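Subject: for your reference before the review

Hello V.,

The reviewers asked for a structural picture of the protein, and I figured it would be easier to keep everything in one thread rather than splitting it across files. Below is the amino acid sequence we used in the manuscript, unchanged from the supplementary table.
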Amino acid sequence: MLDVYNNKRREPRVKIHTRVIVAGCDANGDDFRAETTTVDVSPHGASVCLEQNLVRGSVVEFATQGYAFRTRAVVRAIDHDRESGSHLVGLEYLDDAVNPVVIWGSGQNDRQSRVG
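And here is what came back from the structure prediction:
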């Protein structure tokens, strides 16, 4: 699958496959709730594979299943994989949420310190 936003990332990513639930409205306006796994995570976002087609800029609910973390997230990037039919979706957490699964280095939790 082509990773089109590799150069656009503003924060370091860690390849971690964590079970999550993503819920919201798809591109057709239909409600969905999907159990999936993360492709990678950063202090303020994650990438997930979804069967649903979403709209860039839409807001979804994001919740982990292995540890307590829940937030709203905005869809920042979408890459359609023609081979599998799934969508690689880049999410940015809202509500000043910071994913606690990885101990981030000094300064990584400050949104204003990000470049980009």
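For the response letter, the relevant points are probably these. DSSP finds no helices and six strands in the chain. The chain has a mean pLDDT of 83.

Happy to draft the paragraph if you're swamped.

O.
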